[in-house]
Amino acid sequence: MRAFFLFLLITACSKPDASTPEEQSACHSKVFEESRFTVCDPAGGTIELVAAGPSEQPVRRLAELEASLGPRARGVAFAMNAGMYDEGGRPIGLAIADGVQKHPINRRKGGGNFHLMPNGVFQVFNDGRSAVVASDQWTPSPAIRLATQSGPMLVIHGKLHPAFDADGTSRYVRNAVGVGADGRAIFVISDGPVSFGKLARFFRDDLKTRMRSSWTVRSARCGIRPSGEGT
Asked: DSSP secondary-structure letter at 205?
């Protein structure tokens, strides 16, 4: 089964200084263990989840996302794939957008990265706080504004996922989200293929965030690109 992906988008790019002719990017580059990563900070922007419910048209490509947003696309700081879809473009894991559940939590066993347990849920509350929790510990709440489930978790209570090798041979362009002690989300995509182990260490040892959930996908750097899709 081919997997497609939801989109997270963060509106309100950082405003440029008067002395800066170009708009400042929400994203910057970091090198860790000889691999380059792009790190994106919402910096107080609004995080939104674009996920299709049963009666809604799925958005499966960045160009489609840009078209669906219309004039709002100009205010997007960056857009990132999040969660996983089935072949029809519907989420296969928990998806909550604007407080409305599009798909329930999925705790079934199976193959692939999604089912490499424990997987996790990234969620944003009505007060703006973010969190990542293992899917078997997730509980519904009216305070959750958005949530998206994927996997596997990268770091669990300071330890790497037990199924990861230190630097395994399964290497892809990967992206992930982590949450700092202040409840602020940090988004990352590797600039080239990396293992789960290296990505997990980058979050734990360099960014020093809490538990993380990861997706083996591609994402936009900053702004919505007119082409490209998850792999």
From this structure: I
